[in-house]
């Protein structure tokens, strides 16, 4: 690994990676070699362009010089040489004097991605785009973040489940549903694991978690929507209200951000200019109605006919919270029942409101959580009230007919979290392979 | 948690769970209460069936007695009472004298799953089936196994990726492909993350892993096939051959089985009668042709026209290996090119064979691994040779045109691993919600 070179003593080494840059000067050649861990400068001091009968090493030096001259960006090579520490070398303070160079796979010379290529060109050539160190860092961050979350769940004794993505009916609503030809019938792609993670509660699993794909046939082209995304889901039993879900949520977020900051904080600052902050607990909590009053008092009236917030309102309440409490996170709570799904539990004292919340991170919603209605009569009535057909939901409603504990949970979009953590302009930048209405390739 | 009761001193406690059994005797009532951690006996010594003006606690005892009489299997309750240690109680050596009982959600009395219900009835009512302690154990084992694997990857610096399940074209073959209506066009569900995990190699990610769903429109009804299953995938760069992949594979398996044995070994023995063995490294390795000779010498000629093994042959070579080397695992290596996908690398000295392997566990194949062909000219020629259209594969072939290191990896079916580890008869028993040609519900 290239990152380990600086700690090694001078002497023979062998490294592999791809060519990031070649400086082919008259008397010396430099190659910047990169692997997933970093970059190092290679030096060929023995440049010889033409055979020289006076030079006993002519047979070695001429082909080596030519090989380096012909190296294209992205070509994968393996190099043997002498490691030398040299303070004047900016790149890590070491360089390698090339003895032998082996071309493993030659790259085509016409790199289709330029420094100033737009996002669509970069996505067309995502595998080249991902070679950039800052893109690689995104997925290191993702790895660390998810592992930290899973450690919290494991420590709490939660069970990891894999719910099916093929369903016989809609998971939440008929809208934005992908249909699949399923033998002689039709299946649908799960929009969320909602029903199936609640099944685990009826099954007595207690706490569960899942990190997996979710699908929405959403025709929009915003910076925060995709037709396929990674959903982080958890659900737990024997809660008193959504406040218990929010506590778990905080614990997960703090563990995830802290792990990322510890492991990648410096790199994030260097590549993205972001000084990551581990949030303090508890996160500020504001009932939605109050949040709307706050942004109204500050001059913004949410232009919606329904009771919901809009993205601009979320940005403004987040700015308010950041200024007042110094927090990048804020829970908006007590959403109106009219804008929540039928399975959210209503307030015991005010059935117009739900035991639910959204989590806002740096001004954008990343998650919805709630206590679920577990009383079958109430649940069924709420489904009918929302215009749903209980017959079609019967497989789900059955979960509640044979006993289920009070429970709740949340779903959170991984790509949104990464986008907001690294302050990127679009989830396209932080998704391994983005999927949208016009994009199924590569 | 019920499992924590035994370690507590006698005194007041509060527990929640579901009713597993009620013994409603004339002068005493017993309830077995279960949660995800275990079961405990509740006792009502104050049985009073009719109001008794002489008994000052009549108003409390009569309704309590009636509540317990009416408890149905699966009803979720919360109980306050006195914990008492009592060696004569088989269930954990403790019982709880009930003070107060709260019915949280009443279950319908007609439990549709009986002790002797067949697998189809149990799958229809999977959430009830999953309440059985041995079913719950399956998913505890799954959780521990996956976490142990991820820890190995994390320790090795591997990157976790989430590859898209929606694709513009087939991932491996046109056969067994699910079609999705995708806006005005068609998408396909990924049969494996094969192409996308190889993309990470071209992107310079080094080592990567993914645990996620894969989809096969396979109309068969065997005990080891599903239309949707969880695939464990990994891929790594700069290998010398498939032997490097096999080493990683061994390391992962050993870590996974060791963690499961340590954490759940006793429970597995109790519920499944299986004494789990942590395999010794290296696993036995037998070239496929030799394996066929061995089973032939032992009296079984594989009845296939092609060069492949069949399930019976796999069972026999596994029995041979178990007897000769004491190993539950065996690598069959060097598969014939005719029965391997176009992207498997061929032997340098014998292009009829591939740098590939299958991993057999207790007689059944759980995984295929290989070194991948990374030389574009060779890869393209092999695709054409297999009758594939390079134009349709262009997005994939492009990965190799701009440089890629030598690499390899494997895909492994999680459900098969669990089935074989716990010696279950079908993956239906170890899949949270099985999906087959006739099964999309619940």
From TrEMBL, chains A, B:
Residues 194-197 are annotated as: Aspartate. It comes from Leucobacter allii. CDD domains: Asp_Lys_Asn_RS_N. The gene is aspS. Its EC number is 6.1.1.12. PANTHER family: ASPARTATE--TRNA LIGASE, CYTOPLASMIC (PTHR43450:SF1), ASPARTYL-TRNA SYNTHETASE (PTHR43450). Belongs to the class-II aminoacyl-tRNA synthetase family. Type 2 subfamily. This is Aspartate--tRNA ligase. Its main location: cytoplasm. Residues 139-442 form the Aminoacyl-transfer RNA synthetases class-II family profile domain. InterPro entries: Aa-tRNA-synt_II, aa-tRNA-synth_II, aa-tRNA-synth_II/BPL/LPL, Asp-tRNA_synthase_2, Asp/Asn-tRNA-synth_IIb, NA-bd_OB-fold, NA-bd_OB_tRNA. It holds the Pfam family tRNA-synt_2. Catalyzes the attachment of L-aspartate to tRNA(Asp) in a two-step reaction: L-aspartate is first activated by ATP to form Asp-AMP and then transferred to the acceptor end of tRNA(Asp). One of its GO terms (molecular function) is aspartate-tRNA(Asn) ligase activity. It is found in: Cytoplasm. Homodimer. L-aspartate binds at residues 172, 216, 368, 372. It catalyses: tRNA(Asp) + L-aspartate + ATP = L-aspartyl-tRNA(Asp) + AMP + diphosphate. Keywords: Aminoacyl-tRNA synthetase, ATP-binding, Cytoplasm, Ligase, Nucleotide-binding, Protein biosynthesis. SUPFAM superfamilies: Class II aaRS and biotin synthetases, Nucleic acid-binding proteins.
């Amino acid at each position: 690994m290239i990152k380990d070179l600086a700690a090694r003593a001078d002497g023979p080494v062998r490294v592999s990676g791809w060519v990031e840059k070649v400086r082919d000067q008259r008397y010396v050649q430099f190659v910047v070699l990169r692997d997933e861990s970093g970059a190092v400068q290679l030096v060929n001091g023995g440049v010889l362009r033409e055979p020289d009968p006076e030079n006993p090493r002519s047979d070695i030096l001429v082909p080596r010089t030519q090989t380096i001259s012909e190296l294209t960006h992205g070509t994968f090579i393996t190099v043997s040489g002498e490691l030398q520490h040299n303070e004047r070398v900016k790149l890590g303070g070491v360089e390698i004097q090339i003895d032998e160079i082996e071309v493993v796979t030659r790259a085509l010379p016409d790199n289709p991605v330029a420094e100033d290529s737009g996002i669509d060109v970069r996505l067309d050539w995502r595998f080249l785009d991902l070679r950039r160190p800052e893109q690689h860092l995104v997925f290191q961050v993702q790895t660390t973040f998810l592992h930290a979350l899973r450690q919290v769940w494991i420590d709490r004794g939660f069970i990891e489940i894999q719910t099916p993505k093929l369903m016989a009916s809609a998971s939440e609503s008929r809208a934005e549903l992908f249909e699949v030809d399923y033998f002689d019938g039709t299946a649908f792609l799960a929009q969320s694991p909602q029903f199936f993670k609640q099944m685990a509660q009826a099954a007595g699993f207690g706490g569960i978690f899942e990190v997996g794909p979710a699908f929405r046939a959403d025709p929009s082209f915003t910076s925060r929507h995709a037709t396929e995304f990674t959903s982080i889901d958890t659900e737990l039993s024997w809660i008193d209200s959504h406040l218990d879900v929010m506590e778990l949520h905080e614990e997960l977020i703090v563990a995830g951000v802290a792990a990322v900051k510890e492991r990648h904080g410096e790199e994030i600052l260097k590549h993205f200019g972001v000084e990551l902050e581990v949030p303090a607990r508890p996160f500020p909590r504001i009932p939605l109605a109050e949040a709307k009053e706050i942004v109204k008092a500050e001059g913004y009236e949410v232009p919606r006919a329904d009771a919901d917030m809009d993205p601009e309102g979320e940005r403004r309440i987040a700015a308010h919270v950041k200024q007042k409490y110094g927090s990048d996170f804020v829970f908006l709570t007590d959403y109106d029942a009219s804008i929540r799904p039928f399975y959210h539990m209503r307030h015991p004292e005010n059935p117009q409101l739900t035991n639910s919340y959204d989590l806002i991170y740096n001004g954008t919603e990343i998650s919805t959580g709630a206590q679920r209605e577990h009383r079958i009569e109430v649940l069924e009535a709420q489904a009918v009230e929302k215009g749903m057909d209980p017959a079609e939901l019967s497989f789900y409603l059955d979960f509640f007919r044979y006993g289920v504990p009070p429970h709740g949970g949340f779903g959170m979009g991984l790509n949104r979290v990464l986008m907001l953590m690294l302050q990127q302009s679009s989830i396209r930048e932080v998704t391994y392979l983005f999927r949208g209405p016009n994009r199924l390739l590569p």
